[in-house]
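Quick board copy: two proteins, each given as sequence then tokens.
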Amino acid sequence: MPVTTKHPQYEAHEDEWRLMGDSLGGEPAIKGRATEYLPKTAGQVEAESMAKSDETDLTQAEAAGIYQGYLTRAEYPLWVKDSLRTMMGLVSRQEPEIKLPPRMQGLLDEATADGFGLKQLFLRVVAATLTRGRSPLMAEFDDDRKPYIAQYTAETAINWKEESQGGRRDLTLAVFEEQREKEDGDEFSHDSKAVYRVLDLPDGQCRVRVLDESGTAVEDETTLGRSANGEVAPLGYLPIVYVGSTDNNPDVDEIPLLSMAKSALKYYQLSADYYTSLHYTAHPQPWVAGLEEDKDLRVTGPMAAWVLPPEGKADYLEFTGAGIEATRTAMTDQRNAALEAGARVIDVAGAESGEARRARQDDQHASLYSVVVTAAEGIEQVLKYIADWMGASGEVVFRIVPKFTKEEVDAAMMQIIANMVLAGEVPRQVLFDVMRKAQLTELTDDQLEALRDGGDGGEDDGGTPPGQDLDDDEEEEAA
């Protein structure tokens, strides 16, 4: 099979990774996919079909414009991007415990291919795992023999294989797609070509090849190992870790924010129908009957009058029915589903026991807590590979015990919901309900609304119990 062969799990998750990338890209990326994410309605398909025939005066451009208007009116919410930003704010407050041998101290400040330190690498791994479910890492050395950790994406780790080695299942094949600038391109060109970095274990020795799409070598084959006394002691393993959302084996894990992305996509599709319905409601279609055949009424508006024969009739076709409210209710359902998905990921109350963690892994449910833990464990394992490769003696530790306080989690969830409220995507009552659950207030919806309108939240505004006053902090939170 060719070097471009993809692992079955890769092919099964490729569309999900594309959706997550487009979700982070926002409305331009989503709408750029056109009918892939927003299919044409039956009427739009029929209009375009008729425009290609002689059955109508509708031109093909006008028929295409119907769908373009449908697409333009649709609204894609930034729930995934906003939630990721909020979650990364929580994670960025965590400080890792790092211990490295003296020869590896440089990795503290330069651990990535672009010169950033271990803390920055950790944040990148967590972000990638939240949005893709995996973040492949590989130990590497630059031309000056300085170690660093190469981070690949889920999309570029196209193939892998595990085999039984001495009674254990070890990684024996890893293929990564890389983009390299074309040699014949000018200095301003961004044209690139794909090459494939292949690591495997023939005869138990780690071999690295770089091949083009046809399988032809574009670099000399190398064997990874330690140099000692002019000889190379080959590595007997692949220095690669596939950091996942629930564990760090090569299998593809679930994407923590995928449910939210799917809810956002469904909301987007529903919004196209909803806003198109509102558009047609605001612009009714006039109709005329009993007009002489040689009369042509094309001008409408407040300054134009139609003169009809005595038997003539005129009226408007207006959009009516229960469909608008049903669509709006379905959009609300998707908002609530997105909030629930975000709450499930960000639910980090309390540290996990070993038994609880095993149970979660069996259930394949990824939380922010588990993502932080597996990211730290993955980075630590790659650092141990580097230490072994260098022959560096000393303790290697990269550990984070997540300490998310209840107050931080409540604040993060409220920020996600507040963003939706400010965007007009959820009613304020949802925010009020979260405030009560976080024990920030005991006021009713009516009392909180009264505070927003300048009232005092008292008995006349909804019935505050006698003697119960609203303190300044509570009033500020409610406002």
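And the next:
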Amino acid sequence: MKQFTQAQVQVLSRERAVFNAAWALARAREKLAELYGWALAGEATSWIAPFLLAREVQEALEEVRALALAFADAPFDESVGAFLEEARLEAARILRDREADQPAAGEEVPF
């Protein structure tokens, strides 16, 4: 049996899993917004770029699903739903904070 050092083994807490899931949801939302913008503007002249972007969204959502399933308890549906709701709320907070840090339209950005 393989021996692991303490540096190799990390225990993921539920709070950290919710945080990781929230970041994955935030990334997925940004990629979906970019994909939607391409579709509206007709900027995607090739199928490869939208396909790769959609694949990134799928991977992020699969990561969130895997984390939710890993931390599911006895009432399975309720537990997964609660985890996803926590991650969704945290992702909304992350995106709100990120948008608040960006300068308003027309505002000069100092170098």
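Board note added afterward: The first helix runs from residue 14 to 41.
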